[in-house]
Amino acid sequence: MNLKELNPESSPQAAFGARLRSAREARGWTQEELAERTDYSSQHVSAAETGRKPPTLRFSRGLDVAFGFEGTTESFERAWGELRNGVLLEGFPEFVGYESRAVEIRLYEIGIVPGLLQTPEYARVLVDAAVQRGSITPELAEERISFLTERQTALIRPRPPMVIVVMDESCIHRQVGGPAIMGAQLDRLVQFAEAPNSMVQIAPYAIGERRPFNYPLTVLTLQDRSVVAYAESQTQGHFDRHAPSVLPQLTAYHQLQAVSASQAESVAMINEVRKGIP
């Protein structure tokens, strides 16, 4: 890819690369000179400029130091954040901002353990599998791990939120990453259930058609007692702040809890599955 082939309007990644090249050339630096200032190779700089390699947080911060953009509206770290949010499902970045301030979080998940409860090893297996399928790049995989860590850390507060989790039974039966990783993940679920500000319930296969949701859902209660919801499919996300449409989802969540196993029964189910894993 040469200079003429780079179209800043083709993608956020290309726009980042074009801006990087412009900043470098404005200072009269070669790619080799910028590489020395950022502790990266000139090949890395070239790949970022031409959009062949997505920027990472570390690289973006290195650019800000080199160009003197730290803490300014021109910072590459800020551009990286906008680019990263651009690859997330619609509505998700806004939802995460609310999630970090919620006083109550209600989760429902199908197939895999919810992100907020995932161990680092479990999360790593999932993103590595996405890389192997060609769905995401290795760089984006690292950003997803970092982003998940930020979300989990944001919930560790002096007054943590109440977190209520209902998982479809498939979440504890689908083995991810082999016995050691899955075993540790199940142990994490049991540990999570013991916390005073958490609740874990399993929605057994036996509830059949009484399961009200066929998609992952999160309902947040905010400090002013208002509620918002986020639901997603494989390719689409929807963040809803409209009370008339959110409240019926909260009601359906309560109905789901009513037909799910109690926390004691759910922990017993998790422990039973755990016994079968070496």
UniProtKB/TrEMBL annotation:
Pfam families: DUF5753, HTH_31. PROSITE patterns: HTH_CROC1. Residues 34-53 are annotated as: Disordered. Transmembrane segments: none annotated. InterPro entries: Cro/C1-type_HTH (IPR001387), DUF5753 (IPR043917), Lambda_DNA-bd_dom_sf (IPR010982). GO terms for molecular function: DNA binding. Residues 20-76 form the HTH cro/C1-type domain. It comes from the Bacteria. This is Transcriptional regulator.
